[in-house]
Amino acid sequence: MLRRNPRGDYPVVHETAFVDPTAVLCGNVIVNEHVFIGPYAVIRADEVDADGHMEPIVIGANSNIQDGVVIHSKDGAAVTIGQHSSIAHRSIVHGPCIVGSRVFLGFNSVLFNCRVGDNAVVRHNCVVDGHDIPDNFYLPSATVVTGATDLTALETVPESAQQFSESVMHTNVSLAQAYRRIQNEF
């Protein structure tokens, strides 16, 4: 479902993207080409700052927002998901937040007030709150990163994790194309 926010902004979805009919996109949301947005995802850009300003939530080309993901932002801050990135089932991305390109965010993970660099892998059930994650970085499952966390003890992305991330991204780009072909059959 696509709908306006109280300010009157309406989502812009590229014609090659697929948005599942159960997903909700509200307001100042931009979905680029070949994006897959899965069942029950919610992407909501409806809050403004004290001056009535709102930055968009942007989903980069060839990315996928999987089942039950929530993307929102406080006080109109920007949220950007880069190209070729995978936001896995039931994750939360809450702005202000920037997720780079070719990022994998695992199941049930939470991002808030952070930047996740290009080619990073954030495995399942991680929390990143107020701390940037560098390019090519790897967070093992259930890692909690706050402003006080020292990242020097953590490693760069292992090849196996990078291959898994690429596989998920390619699978979901294919799903976007396949679901667009059959969307009128629902």
UniProtKB/TrEMBL annotation:
SUPFAM superfamilies in alphabetical order: Trimeric LpxA-like enzymes
Gene3D superfamilies (UniProt xref): Hexapeptide repeat proteins
InterPro entries, sorted: Gamma-CA, Hexapep, Trimer_LpxA-like_sf
PANTHER family assigned to the protein according to its UniProt record, in alphabetical order: CARBON DIOXIDE CONCENTRATING MECHANISM PROTEIN CCMM, CARBOXYSOME ASSEMBLY PROTEIN CCMM
Entry protein name: Carbonate dehydratase
Native organism taxonomy: Bacteria, Pseudomonadati, Pseudomonadota, Betaproteobacteria, Burkholderiales
